[in-house]
Amino acid sequence: MSIHLYDSATREIRAFKPLITGAVSIYLCGATVQAPPHIGHVRSGINFDILRRWLTHSGYDVTFIRNVTDIDDKILQNALKEKMPWWALALKYERAFTQAYKELNVLPPTYEPRATGHITQMVELIEKLISRGKAYAPGNGDVYLDVHSLDEYLTISKQKLADLLVSPDGDQSFKKNPQDFALWKSAKPGEPSWPTPWGAGRPGWHIECSAMAHAYLGEVFDIHGGGLDLVFPHHENEIAQSNAAGYPFAKLWMHNAWVTTAGEKMSKSLGNSLRVNELLTKVRGIELRWYLGSAQYRSMLEYSPEALDESAAGFRRVENFLKRATEIIGQNPELKISKDFAAAMDNDLAVPEGLAIIAELVRSGNAAITSNDKKTLTENAANVRGALSILGCDPFDDNWVIDQSNELTEIVDGLVKLALAEREAARIRQDWQSADRIRDAISAVGISIEDTSSGPRWTITRGEDR
């Protein structure tokens, strides 16, 4: 079965056929670096990282572009609030996003262009739109796209132009039509600006991505991705200005759904933002990634502390199976992909079906441990590890390996082993009361004990097995 993906533009799942055999080009709208990342931001990164990993596994050479919007109204507003230069605030939060992606094992993009580094390309694109009669400069330093001059508009959202509200960007008194949107904004006192033929100013949000996508992927490319909230106006306006310039632009559009809390989209204005760095004090990065990637990318993911804890506990069961299998096999499992898991991923990245397949492999693998069926255990462990690698949650991945030379880790490891030795001695002399007391004391500090055929294993509730 070939890979099938849902196209937001046609609203159907269809067979994916890249422009170039054996290669895939992807543009993903990245972060607007105005504030620290919350889990609603990074879900997009994780969803499209899974897509990228599956395409790579399927034999494609993937070029993956994820931009950074480092000039924007909100960046300027927040820079004033934090009393720092706009560029310093943008860099501060760009680094925060980079760290969050790293801690969640999101692969670095092939290229990660910043908007401010591509002003020349934006100006060139705007000049082309003006020369084709699709944009106009009214003389106040702004440039607008003339939406009524377009052959097509609103091709994804399927809205009607007459139903649109006034576009809020720019000076309405200079627009031909209320729905026209700004490609370039004239300079305001105290704001950053760049010189152009129309006067000093800064780019509109939408022109940034069109120019960067064209610069790195050409006039037409395979997949454009982003969050569901970007369909309108951002992606509609990207399509409009790119097509107006004569560029076919993206062949397929993919949008991930939101992380919701109490049924509402996460946002700073609602006061329900959950920052990545805060949640990483409660669960490990691998557990947070497992949770955020567990829903099908087009489905809403309702966040609650209980749901996160339940998901993390479920992942630890899978992880413990792999580590028990490793002890029995005598080496880390191979990386294999079962036919059932492959079919689930080929079906528009049906991760929930994939998780059900992983759960069945673990159940069967644990039965194989009990029955001493090493062949089945080895095969199941390899298929579990392979599936986890696609989801970015392979516990043997170097990204997740804790540095064993860490002094504090060694001290904790030694103390736990000492307590376990005391417990084992109590069990040998059949002093069950003392053995239970030691076990309860260990559990009270957040360490669980599992008795296995190869001896007791300990696990920190939010840490790694030893």
Automatic annotation (TrEMBL):
One of its GO terms (cellular component) is cytosol. Its main location: cytoplasm. It is found in: Cytoplasm. One of its GO terms (molecular function) is metal ion binding. Residues 340-401 form the Cysteinyl-tRNA synthetase class Ia DALR domain. Keywords: Aminoacyl-tRNA synthetase, ATP-binding, Cytoplasm, Ligase, Metal-binding, Nucleotide-binding, Protein biosynthesis, Zinc. InterPro entries: Cys-tRNA-ligase (IPR015803), Cys-tRNA-synt_Ia_DALR (IPR015273), Cys-tRNA/MSH_ligase (IPR024909), Rossmann-like_a/b/a_fold (IPR014729), tRNA-synt_1_cat_dom (IPR032678), tRNAsynth_Ia_anticodon-bd (IPR009080). Its cofactor is Zn(2+). The keyword Cytoplasm applies. Its EC number is 6.1.1.16. It is an enzyme of class 6 (ligase). GO terms for biological process: cysteinyl-tRNA aminoacylation. It catalyses: tRNA(Cys) + L-cysteine + ATP = L-cysteinyl-tRNA(Cys) + AMP + diphosphate. Belongs to the class-I aminoacyl-tRNA synthetase family. PANTHER family: CYSTEINE--TRNA LIGASE (PTHR10890:SF30), CYSTEINYL-TRNA SYNTHETASE (PTHR10890). This is Cysteine--tRNA ligase.
